[in-house]
Amino acid sequence: MKNKEVKILCYCDRWHSTSSYKIIACFDDSLSLERFILKHKEEFKLTTENIQNLTLLNQTQGLGTNLIVLTERLNPTEL
Q: Where are the domains positioned within the chain?
């Protein structure tokens, strides 16, 4: 079986502390995540640079409330 991954979009504090993560949404592919981010960029107050950071670094930087994208494998016990 092909390993499947899920992308988890979260709010987090300016230091990206794991204790601050609040899940916004989960996606089964990167394209759906990108579409969601672009659709909600005004709501999240994202600049073009923020969107580039999310795409390249999986996080925004320098904001009071940042966004972070986590990637987790589904059924990780299957090899």
A: 4-74
